[in-house]
Amino acid sequence: MPATPAYPPHSAPRLFVDLALSEGAEIRLDGSHAHYLLKVMRIKQGDPVKLFDDRSGEYLAHVSALGKRDLILLVNGKTREREAVPDLWLCTAPIKKDRFSWIAEKATELGVAKMIPVQTERTQSHNIKPEKLRTHMIEAAEQCERTALPALDPLIKLTDMLEQWPADRHLFFADERIHESGEGSFRKALVAHEGPAAILIGPEGGFTDAENEMIRALPQSVPVSLGPRILRADTAALAAISLWMAGRGDWNPG
Predict the structure, then answer these.
(1) Rounded CA gap, 40 and 115, in Å?
(2) H-helix or E-strand containing 91?
(3) d(Cα 200, Cα 222) in Å, to the nearest integer?
(4) Which of 43, 157, 203, 236 has a beta carbon 3.0–4.6 Å from 231's, enabling a disulfide?
(5) Bridge partners for 15 per DSSP
(6) Under DSSP, is residue 144 helix (H, G, I), strand (E, B) or coil?
(7) Is 51 helix (H, G, I), strand (E, B) or coil?
(8) Beta strands 71-81; 14-16: pairing state
(9) Does domain 88-247 have CATH number 3.30.2090.10?
């Protein structure tokens, strides 16, 4: 007798919907969601669809009605609660749009709680399009089975961000200038600094001397080194997030 296949199937389409989900709810989808399910996935009546709302968790639904350009899903029940998110922010200067979108996508996959674009003196790209960054975050969460999305703040000047910085949050400042001095071990910094945290990554070309001094003057600032090699901004962001997740995040359960 053949084994009963797992249900819902792993291949079931998975979508984020920006509304509160609950068992028994009927969800009408049109626009890009409907196009994806109807034209790309060729979904049929009765087929399963996974949904998550960034509020309460993930739900299993099935197609209860099909139209030419829309469809209705009936929510059967919850499959997972919304995941716990490590309290880590990523503060990073915008770079070229494709690479900055890539940072947003990978930061979502790695589990940051918030992303803050930061304008510095050497920031080359000021034309941030939050809706496009948000789209990249959503797509990453859909594909990687996340049940939570990072918050996305508007672009803020470095001076304003430092003036408003919360007293209880450490700011791990990636400073490529300190490696040769033998200071700034990220591993040692993580051992010494528990609690809410953020990572600050500079622009292409790095922070100016004045900005470096201003960041260091912040009591919550913790200058750290990312090793002996100079990293591009997008590489530095992912390296720093990974180090924090391994040392203080949820990569080491138990």
Answers:
(1) 31
(2) strand 88-92
(3) 10
(4) 236
(5) 51
(6) coil
(7) strand
(8) unpaired
(9) no
Fold agreement (14-81, 88-247): no
Are the C-beta atoms of residues 30 and 123 closer than 8 Å to each other? no
Closest C-alpha among 221, 226, 213 to residue 185: 226
Number of helices (H), then strands (E), belonging to the chain: the values are 7, 12
The tens place of each residue's pLDDT in the chain, 254 residues long, gives 344 445 556 679 999 999 999 999 999 999 999 999 999 999 999 999 999 999 999 999 999 999 999 999 999 999 999 999 999 999 999 998 889 999 999 999 999 999 999 999 999 777 788 999 999 999 999 999 999 999 999 999 999 999 999 999 999 999 877 765 557 889 999 999 999 999 999 998 899 999 999 999 999 999 999 988 889 999 999 999 999 999 999 987 66
> How far separated are the first and last CA of the chain, in Å rounded?
40
Query: What is residue 3's predicted lDDT score, i.e. its pLDDT?
Result: 40
* pTM score: 0.91
Length of the chain: 254
Specify the CATH class of 14-81 in words.
mainly beta
Give me Rg for the CA atoms of the chain: 21
Indicate the domain borders of the chain: 14-81, 88-247
Bridging pattern class, strands 151-152 and 114-119 = parallel
Structure tokens at 4: 């009963």
